Amino acid sequence: MRADTDLTAPTPFAARMSVEQVEEGLALAPKFDADGLIPCITTDASTGEVLMLGYMNGEALQRTITTGEAHYWSRSRQCLWHKGATSGLIQEVVELRIDDDQDAVWLRVKVASSGASCHVGYRSCFYRSVELGGPSGEPTRLVFTESRKSFDPKDVYGDAPNPTQV
Amino acid sequence: MRADTDLTAPTPFAARMSVEQVEEGLALAPKFDADGLIPCITTDASTGEVLMLGYMNGEALQRTITTGEAHYWSRSRQCLWHKGATSGLIQEVVELRIDDDQDAVWLRVKVASSGASCHVGYRSCFYRSVELGGPSGEPTRLVFTESRKSFDPKDVYGDAPNPTQV
After folding, report:
1. Strands B38-44 and B105-111
2. B14/A139 CB distance under 8 A
3. Which of A48, A126, A158, B142 is 20 to 30 A (C-alpha) from A40?
4. Closest chain A residue to B25 measured between Cα atoms?
């Protein structure tokens, strides 16, 4: 939570009391990890394609629920991240799901503009498939599944630092 | 890696050298987190439904690639986990993808038997959706998206400990 969050406001999250309540209950009781984050799988609501895996802190999850637009926690920039605020590629929430032990979120979205969600310019962040099979003595090979980028990252992000860390 | 892994075998993973290589290259160079794990989104290859979010260590990822059946690292049991070894609900890999910065995996699978992947008995671990909208003063409510379980966990797992941790 950011320092300017109103801590007197009622929390939208229930306390985690028992395995039965967490797995079979009707209250949202998310489990955040040691860094205060929960992973979020984001898919295209119409095609089912996985667009990205992001992370949310409590504020990002709360804002996603209340505004209907995807918010994440940027681990590279260490700040709340309203997806599309810079690029225009806003993700409108169609459905938000929580998993059995409530430590992962699945977001089904409709993406604005070009429909892309990947900072490299592709539609999905998962634009390469892994060759299956036995060891060859060489590193496992990748095959591109998208033939061209949906946008030019330089046009959209300019000189902003690349979030990928080696 | 387990102690009995053959560390003299050639690694199937490339070293991470640059942002360009990681994002645009043709060699698998996964990034494991501080615990040695990479998150894995698993979807039903025919319906696109997200079944689960699991985690893999290097050995689990390597075995998934070489055997064509999903292997994970069980964080609750702290061991390599060949999905379906107990339940029969083997996940046959149809496609394996890696994301832009190679720190997340997307597995498209065909599930054996009942087609379920959730230890609670549902088809997907994401069997509840979150009600969207403004704060009501109450915890956010959940709605079940599957009306009945695909199997009875007691029949399949017997007295094995529940992996959900409060």
Report:
1. parallel
2. yes
3. A158
4. A142
d(CA A111, CA B3): 45
The pair of structure tokens assigned to A154 is 């330089």
Helices (H), ranges, B1-53: 19-24
Q: Is B57 helix (H, G, I), strand (E, B) or coil?
A: coil
DSSP for residue A140: P
Cα-trace Rg, chain B: 18
Residuewise pLDDT in 10s, chain A (166 residues): 444 445 555 678 999 999 999 999 999 999 999 999 999 999 999 999 999 999 999 999 999 999 999 999 999 899 999 999 988 999 999 999 999 999 999 999 999 988 888 988 899 999 999 999 866 778 899 999 998 898 888 888 887 888 888 9
Residue of A nearest to B48 (CA): A48
Q: Does A132 touch chain B (CB under 8 A)?
A: yes
Residue A46 near chain B (CB below 8 Å): no
Question: Quick check: A13 contacting B, CB < 8 Å?
Answer: yes
What is the C-alpha end-to-end distance of chain A, expressed in Å?
Answer: 28
- What are B105's two structure tokens? 């995996």
Both structure tokens of A71:
């918010």
CB pairs under 8 A between A and B: 182
- Helices marked H in A96-140: none
pLDDT > 70 in chain B, percent = 93
Q: What is the CA radius of gyration of chain A?
A: 18
Is residue A46 a contact partner of residue A123, using CB atoms and an 8 Å limit?
no
C-beta of residue B105 within 8 angstroms of C-beta of residue B56: yes
The whole model's pTM is what?
A: 0.90
Q: Does B76 touch chain A (CB under 8 A)?
A: no
ipTM: 0.89
Q: Residue B139 is encoded by which pair of tokens? A: 């915890």
